[in-house]
Amino acid sequence: MSLLDAQTLSRLGGLKVRARAVVEGVLSGLHKSPHQGQSVEFAEHKEYAPGDELKHLDWKAYGKFDRYYVKRFEHETNLRCTLVVDGSGSMGFGTAGLTKLEVARVLAATLGHLLLRQQDSAGVTIATKAHVVEVPPRSSASHLQVLFEALEANDAKGETDLARTADLLAEKLPRRSLVCVFSDFLDDGPDGLKRLLALRARKHDLAIFHLVDPAELTFPYDDPTLFLSMEDDRSLEVNPREIKESYLEEFTRFLDETKATCTAADVDYVRVRTDEPLDKVLVKFLSLRTGGGAA
User: Fold this and answer.
1) Domain range enclosing 194
2) What tens digit of pLDDT does each residue of 119-137 get?
3) Helices marked H in 118-236 — which ranges?
4) How many domains does the chain have?
5) Strand bridging mode 205-212 / 268-273
6) What number of CA atoms fall less than 13 Å from residue 14's CA on the CB side?
7) Half-sphere exposure (CA, 13 Å, Cβ side) for 261?
8) Does the pTM of the predicted model rise above 0.90?
């Protein structure tokens, strides 16, 4: 199948169609990987490691895959995942076929689809400074449509407030949840990322998907330009040629510091260009979580 980049996905229908297409790409990619699609978070079996009890070896799985897998019981495998999508105004920026919010929706919907296939639980939180939309984690097959509807119902608008979102999650998350955050992290508040990463200290499993548009990486502007804030009434008219070098230095520093902060907190960090194939993004993420790659 063709690589599911932003341009390809933009020509498909709604979120349901896009998500299912990416699911197919992910499953195909995992099938070709040395992990055979097995992941600690998303599988009913765990690949055998020294120290595992031999009585739990699944001999049928060995006969099929020629690898040793350990059976994991329901109480061990019932994962609760909350997919947190930043719905603020800056997420509406997009120059590559899909906006950052649309990419976040597809990634969240695809992960939700994969989780429910494994009979795990998935919920959605859409967050802005003004309001938070919450869909609690459920594991029923019919819940997938609820997730799609919640993801599609909100446009990118308003200000970012990641600190408030983190505090709400800390209050409501069940013990030891998986939390996947999809954001551009363009937050005026100084403590947003720090408060999100504090969820790791509360024994939650945390993954950060950092959405970046290619124009933010290259600043492809030459003529005098009026830049308008997507979250408030601010505006700035500048000559791009005069500020390009300093802008690129500052943005690179922001990206590097965000990644370094996540790594120091033992949190998975995946930078996502909005023009790259999203099935490959998720295959890389799932491989990362089984020690098969790096983001």
Assistant:
1) 6-29+79-288
2) 889 999 998 877 788 999 9
3) 143-152, 162-172, 192-201, 214-218
4) 1
5) parallel
6) 7
7) 17
8) no
